[in-house]
Structure formats: structure tokens, C-alpha cells
Amino acid sequence: MSPTISRATIRTSHHTDPIDGNPLGASPCSTGVMIMEISGTDRDVAFRQYVVPEIDVMYRRAMSLTRNRSDAEDLVQEALIRAYKAVDRFDGRYPRAWLLTIVRNAQINRTRRKRPGLLDDPDTEMDRLAVTDLGDDYDPEATVVDPVFDATIANALESLPVKFKRPVELVDIGALSYQEAADELGIPVGTVMSRLHRARKRVREQLEDAGFGTREID
Amino acid sequence: MGLFRRITRRMTTGSTECARVGAVVQRYLDGEYEDDPSWIEDHLDECEACGLESETLQRIKDAIARQGGPDSITRARLQEFAERIADGGIGSLDDVAR
Asked: Which residues of chain A lie closer than 8 angstroms to B16, CB-CB?
């Protein structure tokens, strides 16, 4: 651990994010014009205590938002930097919620930078999106994982129409609330719930087709 | 689950309580049920059919969540990145821009 002064370069802005204190509409990875000095030891300890253990969860949220592994990794890196700069102002309560909000805000800023001023119709946008590369990763934190079961789940998820798959990705992978998922997709909460229900029912049917015994969802 | 629970679990299957629980079990498992959930939990313990239903849904949710996790290489890379931040090894954030 370094007790020395770290330096971070950020773009100046008049508007800051209320969650992480970073400039809105700017990236800490952007070419900077201002040098901000941040102190060492306490921040490092807090960063390791609150942030590092949540990297997997941050990545899952990033995956649910970007739907692309490379973009998700970039987003987590950006969120880690934002979290490091803000952790001295974090009160230690609900670190996961705090970090997931940072990931979300970082993604909003990334989207703004890519497509300023565009407002896409959510359903049209979902239909346009390519199929997500979700892969078949193994999670070492899971105590008991059936690789065949997980592979069947992955295939079932892939086969879902985008409008059903996105709510599942946001809620089950990204740990968004119904309201957050509804806001993200631009649809009512009730529609999120019904699409979740139908998506899970379809996943379950594919599990049954693959020989996994489950009961019907009503 | 205790023996008594296992024995009595079958006895409530098909009751109107099953329908009540079935209507909210998704919200409950998603952490969206805002009222006291003890009646749901009691029923899931007592009713074999609803208990299995809940366990199946939870297993599916868990498996879906694993689909979005980082692989071991990505996880190691992000851990190393975080360590570099904490060690002050990233002198300028421009260093990490891709």
C-alpha cells in the first residue's frame, strides 16, 4: 500500500455527480486539464475494504448494462476509478448499492459521450441490438454449480427475444430493481414483471426439454 | 427443514394459500416484496409444491446471474487494476484509457 500522494487527471466541469462527485458528462479516462490530488492511506484502506470485494457484482451490473464483455470491463475500470476518488466521502453504509449506482452513472456518461442528444425508442433499440455474448463462465464463488444446468440456462437465455431477455439481464444479472429496470428500458414496472415472468417460464421450459425436472410456472 | 416441517409440508399443497403465494413469489424472490414476508416464508416451508417452485425459481435466477459474471482472467485483470489504483500505480487516469 502506498502512503504517498496519488494523482488523478479529470476533465473540469461545473456539474458533478451527486453519488461519486465526478464531473457529469465527462470521463475520468478522458484527456484531462486539471490535476486533482488525493491522499493515500485511508483512501486505500477504504477502497480495499468497500470496493475491491464487490468487483464481481460491479462487473455483473456492467454486463447487464453494456451487454458486451469488453465494454463491461472498461466500464468497471472507470467505475473503480470513480469509486476510488469518492470513497473518502462514502459513509460505509450499503457499499454495494453505492457502487452499483456508480457503475450506472458511469454508463450514463459513457452513453452520453457516444451518442449525445439521441433519444432512442426503447423497444426499437432492443430489437436492433445484437445478440449478447454471455459465454459460459464458471463462478468460483458458487459452492455447487452444475455446468450442464448452467449451459442450458445460457442457451435458453440466448434464445429469448430481446424484449424478454433484457429485463432478465437487468434484474437477475445486474441486480436492478423493477423500477430501475423499467427506467432503463423505458417501459412500465408491470411490463417488466410480466416479461420477467414469461422469460423465466421459457427458460424453465428449455430446462425441462433438456431433461431437468421442473414444474410448470402457472 | 425439520422432520415435522417435511411431514406437514405436503398437507397444504393446493390450498388457496398456494394461489396467494404463487401470485407474489416472483416479487419475493426478486427482493421486491415490501410487506412482511413471513407468511410467504412459512408457506414455502410448509407446502412441498410451493417450496419446490420457489427453489426452482431461485436456482434459475442464480444460474442466470452467473452468466454475467467475469471469467477468471477478467476477474484477475480487474483485481490487478484495482490494486494498481490503491497502490498509487496509476499516476494519471489517462494511463488506463483504451
From this structure: none
pLDDT tens-digit map of A86-134: 998 898 888 988 999 999 899 988 887 765 434 444 343 333 333 333 3
Q: Contact A52/A116 with Cβ under 8 angstroms?
A: no
CATH of A6-114, one of 3.40.1410.10, 3.40.50.11690, 2.30.30.280, 1.10.1740.10: 1.10.1740.10
CA nearest to B75, candidates A53, A190, A145, A8: A53
Max Cα-Cα span within chain A: 60
Band (pLDDT 50/70/90 cuts) for residue A215 is low
Task: Tell me the ipTM for this assembly.
Answer: 0.71
Domain extents for chain B? Answer: 1-67, 70-98
Contact A149 B81 (CB under 8 A): no
Determine the Cα–Cα distance for residues A30 and A113; give it in Å rounded to an integer.
11
Contact between A153 and B60 using a beta-carbon 8 Å cutoff = yes
Contact of A60 with chain B, judged by CB distance below 8 Å, is answered with yes
CATH of domain A122-209: 1.10.10.10
Query: Cα–Cα distance between A19 and A22 in angstroms, integer?
Result: 8
Q: Is A196's Cβ below 8 Å from some Cβ in B? A: yes
The CA distance from A72 to A182, in Å, is 21
* Domain spans, chain A: 6-114, 122-209
| Nearest Cα to Cα of residue A187 among A164, A157, A216, A215 | A164
Does any CB of chain B come closer than 8 Å to the CB of residue A205? no
In chain A, which residue's Cα lies nearest the Cα of B26?
A197
- A123-158 pLDDT per residue, tens: 433 333 333 333 333 333 333 567 788 889 989 999
